[in-house]
Amino acid sequence: MSERAKDQADPSEGGAEAALAPPAAASCSSAAPGSRATPRPPGGAGRAASQAAEPDRPATVTASAPGRAGILGNPTDGYGGTVISCALAERATATVSAADAITITIGGETTVFAGREDFELRRDRFDCARAVLKFLRITDRPLAIHIDTTIPVQAGLAGSTAILTAMVVALRAWSGQDPLEKHLLAETVRVIELNYLKIQCGYQDQYMSVFGGLNVMDFRDKEYYRDLKHEIYATIETLEVGGELPLVLAHTGQSRVSGHVLRPIRERWEQGDAAVRDGYRRIAELARLGKRAILERDWETVARYMTENHRIQQALGASSPVNDRMIQAALDAGALAAKLAGAGGGGTILALATEPEKLAEALLAAGAARILRPIPAEGVRIEAASADRPL
Question: Whole-model pTM?
Fold first, then answer.
Protein backbone atom coordinates (compact mmCIF):
# COMPACT_ATOMS: atom_id res chain seq x y z
CA MET A 1 0.00 0.00 0.00
CA SER A 2 1.39 3.43 -0.93
CA GLU A 3 2.00 6.18 1.64
CA ARG A 4 -0.95 8.11 0.26
CA ALA A 5 -3.18 5.04 0.39
CA LYS A 6 -2.22 4.47 4.01
CA ASP A 7 -3.05 8.06 4.84
CA GLN A 8 -6.49 7.67 3.29
CA ALA A 9 -7.31 4.29 4.83
CA ASP A 10 -11.03 3.99 5.53
CA PRO A 11 -11.58 5.24 9.08
CA SER A 12 -14.63 3.01 9.42
CA GLU A 13 -12.20 0.24 10.38
CA GLY A 14 -12.04 1.71 13.91
CA GLY A 15 -9.28 3.40 15.87
CA ALA A 16 -9.64 7.00 16.99
CA GLU A 17 -12.88 7.41 15.08
CA ALA A 18 -14.57 4.62 17.01
CA ALA A 19 -13.91 6.46 20.24
CA LEU A 20 -15.99 9.39 18.97
CA ALA A 21 -19.14 7.32 18.57
CA PRO A 22 -21.85 7.85 21.18
CA PRO A 23 -22.15 5.20 23.90
CA ALA A 24 -24.61 2.43 23.20
CA ALA A 25 -26.95 3.78 25.84
CA ALA A 26 -26.63 7.52 26.38
CA SER A 27 -28.83 9.95 28.20
CA CYS A 28 -29.96 13.20 26.60
CA SER A 29 -27.85 16.29 27.24
CA SER A 30 -26.40 19.23 25.38
CA ALA A 31 -23.20 21.26 25.26
CA ALA A 32 -21.59 23.68 22.83
CA PRO A 33 -17.90 23.57 21.85
CA GLY A 34 -16.00 25.51 24.44
CA SER A 35 -18.97 25.81 26.80
CA ARG A 36 -19.99 23.95 29.90
CA ALA A 37 -21.71 20.60 29.47
CA THR A 38 -25.37 20.56 30.40
CA PRO A 39 -26.07 18.15 33.29
CA ARG A 40 -27.53 14.86 32.13
CA PRO A 41 -31.09 14.08 33.12
CA PRO A 42 -31.17 11.54 35.97
CA GLY A 43 -31.87 7.94 35.18
CA GLY A 44 -29.32 7.36 32.39
CA ALA A 45 -30.43 5.32 29.42
CA GLY A 46 -33.71 4.42 31.05
CA ARG A 47 -34.58 8.09 31.34
CA ALA A 48 -33.62 8.68 27.69
CA ALA A 49 -35.86 5.82 26.65
CA SER A 50 -38.62 7.26 28.79
CA GLN A 51 -38.25 10.64 27.13
CA ALA A 52 -38.42 9.02 23.69
CA ALA A 53 -41.73 7.49 24.73
CA GLU A 54 -43.11 10.83 25.96
CA PRO A 55 -43.77 13.04 22.94
CA ASP A 56 -44.80 15.92 25.19
CA ARG A 57 -41.35 15.97 26.82
CA PRO A 58 -38.74 15.21 24.13
CA ALA A 59 -35.09 16.09 24.58
CA THR A 60 -34.09 18.41 21.73
CA VAL A 61 -30.81 19.99 20.70
CA THR A 62 -30.29 22.55 17.92
CA ALA A 63 -26.83 23.46 16.61
CA SER A 64 -25.78 25.74 13.78
CA ALA A 65 -22.60 26.40 11.77
CA PRO A 66 -21.69 29.16 9.28
CA GLY A 67 -20.70 29.17 5.66
CA ARG A 68 -17.42 30.77 4.59
CA ALA A 69 -15.74 32.71 1.78
CA GLY A 70 -12.11 32.22 0.82
CA ILE A 71 -10.40 35.62 0.51
CA LEU A 72 -6.81 34.63 -0.28
CA GLY A 73 -4.91 31.37 -0.59
CA ASN A 74 -7.72 29.08 -1.70
CA PRO A 75 -7.51 26.29 -2.71
CA THR A 76 -4.12 25.56 -1.11
CA ASP A 77 -5.72 24.27 2.09
CA GLY A 78 -5.48 20.78 0.57
CA TYR A 79 -1.84 21.26 -0.44
CA GLY A 80 -0.10 22.33 2.75
CA GLY A 81 -0.72 26.00 2.01
CA THR A 82 -2.16 29.03 3.75
CA VAL A 83 -5.67 30.47 3.44
CA ILE A 84 -7.40 33.60 4.69
CA SER A 85 -11.12 33.04 4.99
CA CYS A 86 -14.12 34.78 6.53
CA ALA A 87 -17.32 33.30 7.89
CA LEU A 88 -20.80 34.27 6.74
CA ALA A 89 -23.92 35.33 8.58
CA GLU A 90 -25.72 32.55 6.72
CA ARG A 91 -25.83 29.28 8.66
CA ALA A 92 -26.90 25.65 8.49
CA THR A 93 -29.01 24.42 11.42
CA ALA A 94 -29.56 20.87 12.66
CA THR A 95 -32.16 19.96 15.29
CA VAL A 96 -32.12 16.51 16.88
CA SER A 97 -35.00 15.13 18.93
CA ALA A 98 -36.52 11.85 20.04
CA ALA A 99 -38.74 10.02 17.56
CA ASP A 100 -40.24 6.60 16.82
CA ALA A 101 -37.88 6.02 13.88
CA ILE A 102 -34.82 7.58 12.27
CA THR A 103 -36.49 10.43 10.43
CA ILE A 104 -34.59 13.03 8.41
CA THR A 105 -36.08 16.29 7.14
CA ILE A 106 -34.11 18.54 4.83
CA GLY A 107 -35.54 21.45 2.88
CA GLY A 108 -39.10 20.40 3.61
CA GLU A 109 -38.59 16.84 2.35
CA THR A 110 -38.68 13.93 4.80
CA THR A 111 -37.43 10.37 4.63
CA VAL A 112 -37.23 7.48 7.09
CA PHE A 113 -34.18 5.23 7.40
CA ALA A 114 -35.68 1.80 8.14
CA GLY A 115 -32.92 -0.62 7.20
CA ARG A 116 -29.19 -0.93 6.61
CA GLU A 117 -29.61 -0.24 2.91
CA ASP A 118 -31.07 3.18 3.69
CA PHE A 119 -27.67 4.30 5.00
CA GLU A 120 -25.90 3.72 1.69
CA LEU A 121 -25.11 6.87 -0.31
CA ARG A 122 -27.66 7.69 -2.99
CA ARG A 123 -26.35 11.05 -4.22
CA ASP A 124 -29.37 12.87 -2.89
CA ARG A 125 -29.97 15.53 -0.25
CA PHE A 126 -30.04 12.98 2.56
CA ASP A 127 -26.46 11.78 2.04
CA CYS A 128 -25.12 14.23 4.63
CA ALA A 129 -27.28 12.58 7.29
CA ARG A 130 -26.29 9.09 6.12
CA ALA A 131 -22.60 9.98 6.38
CA VAL A 132 -22.81 11.48 9.87
CA LEU A 133 -25.01 8.74 11.31
CA LYS A 134 -22.75 6.00 9.93
CA PHE A 135 -19.64 7.67 11.28
CA LEU A 136 -21.19 8.16 14.73
CA ARG A 137 -22.63 4.63 14.55
CA ILE A 138 -26.15 5.82 15.18
CA THR A 139 -28.01 3.56 12.79
CA ASP A 140 -30.47 1.89 15.12
CA ARG A 141 -31.47 4.62 17.57
CA PRO A 142 -34.84 6.31 16.89
CA LEU A 143 -34.42 10.04 16.44
CA ALA A 144 -35.47 12.90 14.22
CA ILE A 145 -33.06 15.30 12.51
CA HIS A 146 -34.41 18.49 10.98
CA ILE A 147 -31.97 20.44 8.80
CA ASP A 148 -32.39 23.97 7.52
CA THR A 149 -29.86 26.24 5.83
CA THR A 150 -29.66 29.79 4.57
CA ILE A 151 -26.35 29.07 2.79
CA PRO A 152 -26.75 28.69 -0.98
CA VAL A 153 -26.51 25.01 -1.94
CA GLN A 154 -23.40 23.79 -3.82
CA ALA A 155 -22.24 27.39 -4.16
CA GLY A 156 -18.61 27.15 -3.08
CA LEU A 157 -19.45 28.53 0.38
CA ALA A 158 -19.00 25.35 2.47
CA GLY A 159 -22.74 24.79 2.78
CA SER A 160 -22.48 20.99 2.94
CA THR A 161 -19.67 21.18 5.50
CA ALA A 162 -21.73 23.51 7.68
CA ILE A 163 -24.57 20.97 7.65
CA LEU A 164 -22.19 18.15 8.62
CA THR A 165 -20.68 20.23 11.43
CA ALA A 166 -24.04 21.26 12.86
CA MET A 167 -25.24 17.65 12.78
CA VAL A 168 -22.14 16.28 14.52
CA VAL A 169 -22.37 18.84 17.32
CA ALA A 170 -26.14 18.43 17.76
CA LEU A 171 -26.02 14.63 17.73
CA ARG A 172 -23.14 14.43 20.19
CA ALA A 173 -24.86 16.86 22.53
CA TRP A 174 -28.18 15.01 22.23
CA SER A 175 -26.35 11.75 23.01
CA GLY A 176 -24.91 13.22 26.20
CA GLN A 177 -21.31 13.46 24.98
CA ASP A 178 -18.90 16.23 25.90
CA PRO A 179 -17.99 18.74 23.16
CA LEU A 180 -14.93 17.95 21.08
CA GLU A 181 -11.91 20.25 21.11
CA LYS A 182 -12.26 22.54 18.10
CA HIS A 183 -9.34 21.22 16.03
CA LEU A 184 -10.46 17.64 16.62
CA LEU A 185 -14.01 18.56 15.65
CA ALA A 186 -12.83 20.14 12.40
CA GLU A 187 -10.74 17.08 11.55
CA THR A 188 -13.63 14.78 12.46
CA VAL A 189 -15.91 16.59 10.01
CA ARG A 190 -13.17 16.32 7.36
CA VAL A 191 -13.04 12.53 7.88
CA ILE A 192 -16.81 12.32 7.46
CA GLU A 193 -16.82 14.46 4.32
CA LEU A 194 -13.94 12.61 2.67
CA ASN A 195 -14.44 9.01 3.73
CA TYR A 196 -18.17 8.77 4.36
CA LEU A 197 -19.68 11.38 2.05
CA LYS A 198 -16.96 10.60 -0.54
CA ILE A 199 -16.24 14.22 -1.44
CA GLN A 200 -12.74 15.39 -2.34
CA CYS A 201 -12.02 18.23 0.06
CA GLY A 202 -9.34 20.32 1.67
CA TYR A 203 -9.41 21.59 5.26
CA GLN A 204 -10.56 25.21 5.00
CA ASP A 205 -14.28 24.47 5.10
CA GLN A 206 -14.18 22.29 8.19
CA TYR A 207 -11.99 24.64 10.21
CA MET A 208 -14.07 27.67 9.25
CA SER A 209 -17.39 26.02 10.10
CA VAL A 210 -16.01 25.18 13.54
CA PHE A 211 -14.00 28.32 14.35
CA GLY A 212 -15.96 30.96 12.44
CA GLY A 213 -14.50 34.49 12.36
CA LEU A 214 -11.90 35.96 10.01
CA ASN A 215 -8.84 33.73 10.09
CA VAL A 216 -5.48 33.07 8.54
CA MET A 217 -5.05 29.31 8.53
CA ASP A 218 -1.73 27.49 8.16
CA PHE A 219 -2.13 23.98 6.73
CA ARG A 220 1.56 23.14 6.66
CA ASP A 221 2.34 19.39 6.41
CA LYS A 222 -1.26 18.64 5.42
CA GLU A 223 -0.59 17.93 1.75
CA TYR A 224 -1.85 14.37 2.18
CA TYR A 225 -4.75 13.02 4.15
CA ARG A 226 -4.03 11.04 7.28
CA ASP A 227 -6.34 9.05 9.50
CA LEU A 228 -7.83 10.99 12.36
CA LYS A 229 -5.45 9.60 14.96
CA HIS A 230 -2.38 10.87 13.11
CA GLU A 231 -3.70 14.06 11.49
CA ILE A 232 -1.69 17.24 12.05
CA TYR A 233 -3.79 20.10 13.34
CA ALA A 234 -3.89 23.36 11.41
CA THR A 235 -2.76 26.61 12.99
CA ILE A 236 -5.63 29.09 13.22
CA GLU A 237 -5.07 32.80 13.87
CA THR A 238 -8.00 35.16 14.16
CA LEU A 239 -7.56 38.54 12.45
CA GLU A 240 -9.11 41.47 14.28
CA VAL A 241 -10.07 44.06 11.67
CA GLY A 242 -12.17 46.97 12.81
CA GLY A 243 -15.15 47.96 10.73
CA GLU A 244 -17.01 46.33 7.90
CA LEU A 245 -15.11 44.32 5.31
CA PRO A 246 -15.45 45.85 1.81
CA LEU A 247 -16.30 42.47 0.31
CA VAL A 248 -19.29 41.27 -1.69
CA LEU A 249 -20.24 37.72 -2.63
CA ALA A 250 -22.27 37.07 -5.78
CA HIS A 251 -23.75 33.62 -6.25
CA THR A 252 -23.87 32.79 -9.95
CA GLY A 253 -26.88 30.52 -9.54
CA GLN A 254 -24.93 27.61 -11.00
CA SER A 255 -24.49 24.73 -8.57
CA ARG A 256 -21.49 22.45 -8.60
CA VAL A 257 -19.84 19.77 -6.47
CA SER A 258 -16.44 20.96 -5.27
CA GLY A 259 -14.89 17.50 -5.56
CA HIS A 260 -15.59 17.43 -9.31
CA VAL A 261 -13.65 20.68 -9.73
CA LEU A 262 -10.79 19.82 -7.39
CA ARG A 263 -10.06 16.24 -8.45
CA PRO A 264 -8.44 16.86 -11.89
CA ILE A 265 -6.12 19.54 -10.48
CA ARG A 266 -5.27 17.29 -7.54
CA GLU A 267 -4.23 14.57 -9.94
CA ARG A 268 -1.96 17.00 -11.78
CA TRP A 269 -0.40 18.11 -8.49
CA GLU A 270 0.27 14.51 -7.46
CA GLN A 271 1.92 13.87 -10.82
CA GLY A 272 4.32 16.76 -10.18
CA ASP A 273 2.85 19.19 -12.72
CA ALA A 274 5.10 22.25 -12.33
CA ALA A 275 2.36 24.72 -13.25
CA VAL A 276 0.12 23.44 -10.46
CA ARG A 277 2.83 23.10 -7.83
CA ASP A 278 4.44 26.46 -8.53
CA GLY A 279 1.06 28.14 -8.85
CA TYR A 280 -0.17 26.82 -5.52
CA ARG A 281 3.05 27.76 -3.77
CA ARG A 282 2.53 31.32 -4.98
CA ILE A 283 -1.15 31.36 -3.97
CA ALA A 284 -0.23 30.25 -0.45
CA GLU A 285 2.41 32.99 -0.32
CA LEU A 286 -0.21 35.56 -1.33
CA ALA A 287 -2.26 34.62 1.73
CA ARG A 288 0.73 35.05 4.02
CA LEU A 289 1.44 38.42 2.46
CA GLY A 290 -2.22 39.34 2.63
CA LYS A 291 -2.38 38.94 6.40
CA ARG A 292 -0.57 42.23 6.98
CA ALA A 293 -2.48 44.04 4.26
CA ILE A 294 -5.83 43.01 5.76
CA LEU A 295 -4.80 43.93 9.30
CA GLU A 296 -3.72 47.36 8.02
CA ARG A 297 -6.89 47.65 5.91
CA ASP A 298 -4.70 48.20 2.86
CA TRP A 299 -7.42 47.15 0.46
CA GLU A 300 -5.55 48.13 -2.70
CA THR A 301 -2.81 45.67 -1.82
CA VAL A 302 -5.35 43.02 -0.89
CA ALA A 303 -6.98 43.60 -4.28
CA ARG A 304 -3.68 43.00 -6.08
CA TYR A 305 -3.21 39.74 -4.24
CA MET A 306 -6.80 38.65 -4.96
CA THR A 307 -6.32 39.38 -8.65
CA GLU A 308 -3.14 37.32 -8.84
CA ASN A 309 -4.76 34.50 -6.85
CA HIS A 310 -7.57 34.33 -9.39
CA ARG A 311 -5.34 34.54 -12.44
CA ILE A 312 -3.40 31.49 -11.26
CA GLN A 313 -6.58 29.53 -10.58
CA GLN A 314 -8.00 30.58 -13.93
CA ALA A 315 -4.85 29.47 -15.76
CA LEU A 316 -5.08 26.07 -14.07
CA GLY A 317 -8.68 25.59 -15.21
CA ALA A 318 -10.50 26.10 -11.90
CA SER A 319 -12.69 28.92 -13.19
CA SER A 320 -15.53 28.67 -15.70
CA PRO A 321 -17.31 30.95 -18.18
CA VAL A 322 -20.07 31.75 -15.68
CA ASN A 323 -17.47 32.67 -13.04
CA ASP A 324 -15.50 34.75 -15.49
CA ARG A 325 -18.58 36.65 -16.67
CA MET A 326 -19.57 37.54 -13.11
CA ILE A 327 -16.00 38.53 -12.23
CA GLN A 328 -15.85 40.78 -15.30
CA ALA A 329 -19.21 42.31 -14.37
CA ALA A 330 -17.79 43.13 -10.93
CA LEU A 331 -14.70 44.75 -12.41
CA ASP A 332 -16.78 46.71 -14.92
CA ALA A 333 -18.88 48.00 -12.01
CA GLY A 334 -15.82 49.37 -10.24
CA ALA A 335 -14.59 46.49 -8.09
CA LEU A 336 -10.90 46.67 -7.24
CA ALA A 337 -10.63 42.89 -7.59
CA ALA A 338 -12.76 39.78 -7.97
CA LYS A 339 -11.98 36.08 -7.66
CA LEU A 340 -13.45 32.69 -6.91
CA ALA A 341 -14.83 32.33 -3.39
CA GLY A 342 -14.46 28.55 -3.49
CA ALA A 343 -13.36 25.80 -5.83
CA GLY A 344 -14.82 27.35 -8.99
CA GLY A 345 -16.76 25.68 -11.78
CA GLY A 346 -19.77 27.87 -10.98
CA GLY A 347 -20.73 28.71 -7.43
CA THR A 348 -19.83 32.14 -6.07
CA ILE A 349 -17.39 34.95 -6.72
CA LEU A 350 -15.89 37.35 -4.18
CA ALA A 351 -15.32 41.01 -5.05
CA LEU A 352 -13.60 43.84 -3.19
CA ALA A 353 -14.99 47.35 -3.67
CA THR A 354 -14.81 50.75 -2.03
CA GLU A 355 -18.61 51.00 -2.33
CA PRO A 356 -19.90 47.48 -1.65
CA GLU A 357 -23.60 48.37 -1.74
CA LYS A 358 -23.37 49.91 -5.22
CA LEU A 359 -21.40 46.89 -6.41
CA ALA A 360 -24.06 44.56 -5.00
CA GLU A 361 -26.74 46.35 -7.02
CA ALA A 362 -24.64 46.11 -10.19
CA LEU A 363 -24.04 42.39 -9.70
CA LEU A 364 -27.74 41.71 -9.23
CA ALA A 365 -28.40 43.64 -12.44
CA ALA A 366 -25.73 41.49 -14.14
CA GLY A 367 -27.60 38.31 -13.21
CA ALA A 368 -26.32 37.31 -9.79
CA ALA A 369 -28.79 34.95 -8.14
CA ARG A 370 -27.98 36.18 -4.66
CA ILE A 371 -25.74 38.66 -2.87
CA LEU A 372 -24.09 37.95 0.48
CA ARG A 373 -21.56 39.76 2.66
CA PRO A 374 -18.71 38.04 4.55
CA ILE A 375 -18.73 38.89 8.26
CA PRO A 376 -16.63 37.31 11.04
CA ALA A 377 -19.59 35.33 12.38
CA GLU A 378 -19.31 32.88 15.25
CA GLY A 379 -18.41 29.27 14.48
CA VAL A 380 -20.51 26.22 15.33
CA ARG A 381 -22.65 26.67 18.40
CA ILE A 382 -25.58 25.22 20.30
CA GLU A 383 -28.61 27.39 19.55
CA ALA A 384 -31.09 25.72 21.89
CA ALA A 385 -31.47 22.67 24.07
CA SER A 386 -34.37 21.34 26.09
CA ALA A 387 -34.58 18.45 28.51
CA ASP A 388 -36.85 17.28 31.26
CA ARG A 389 -35.55 20.02 33.54
CA PRO A 390 -34.31 23.59 32.92
CA LEU A 391 -30.72 23.97 31.69
Answer: 0.85
